[in-house]
């Protein structure tokens, strides 16, 4: 594998972003995107432990349940307690897979990837958006054009806003985001490293079932694969166009805000994917 650096800009307008997503897009880091966000000043592990202690989460190592060697059903308060001292491998909750010894031997850390403070049942949408915008001003989102009932059902079934709390050793395996959405990772604190690949690399890279890009780098069969690479510092926002594959490692204790959106470029595929997903559900929002 070989990598090029992701382009970095200090600012971007809504028109420029729309044009960027219409073109054969590539990842982009906007460095001034979070200027003035209250989250940059107020968010910390203690902040989330105080305000969302009872929020139910699943923590995995690595992040996705299908690839995890360890999985724990717990609460955000317990997860934050673990993050404060991950070296012990201890966390209050129900171990569904693995145990502390397995976790410590792996060198990974538990990662709760399903924390959505805007969740209609467990979260507090109004409170969250005092600290971050649902989407930055330079992003045009078409979700408001969806039928309101369909939109609510989509939000209930699949979170569109996440906060990721993680420590060194946290890994998000290679994947592309749900329902062909665009997404961003807004780095509030700490550092992460992201490796990204264009959608046309999907057939080759998905042959590697672990999603472990570090292992792929040493595999000769991926020698000709080109990717993009970015180190995210506080204040950096990584833009992930629809269907772009990405793998992310936490370098040091991090807080990251992420959201997904649709526009003219992915409206049809989002609606089709969401409709199919909703058809498979028997329950309804309440």
Outline the structure in words.
By secondary structure, the protein is an alpha+beta fold. The protein has a domain at 2-35 and 141-277: Sandwich (Jelly Rolls), CATH 2.60.120. It has helices at 14-22, 39-42, 45-51, 76-84, 100-106, 125-128, 148-157, 202-205, 213-217, 267-279; strands at 2-5, 7-9, 28-30, 56-61, 70-75, 94-97, 111-112, 161-166, 171-175, 182-189, 192-197, 226-232, 237-240, 245-250, 254-261. The strands form 3 sheets. The chain has a 6-stranded mixed beta sheet, with no helix packed on it. It has a 5-stranded mixed beta sheet with strand order 1-12-11-14-9, with no helix packed on it. Strands 6-5-4-7 form a 4-stranded antiparallel beta sheet. A hairpin with an 8-residue loop joins β4 (56-61) and β5. The longest helix has 13 residues, at 267-279. The relative contact order is 0.20.
- Overall mean pLDDT: 94
The fraction of residues assigned to DSSP E strands is: 25-35%
Biggest β-sheet description: 6 strands, mixed
Proper CATH architecture of the domain at 2-35 and 141-277: Sandwich
CATH fold-level topology of the domain at 2-35 and 141-277? Jelly Rolls
| Dominant shape | globular
CATH class of the domain at 2-35 and 141-277: Mainly Beta
Total count of strands: 15
From the structure provided, what is the oligomeric state, counting identical versus distinct chains?
Answer: single chain
H-E string: EEHEHHEEHEHEHHEEEEHHEEEEH
Strand order of the largest sheet: 2-3-13-10-15-8
At the fourth CATH level, what is the homologous superfamily of the domain at 2-35 and 141-277?
A: Jelly Rolls
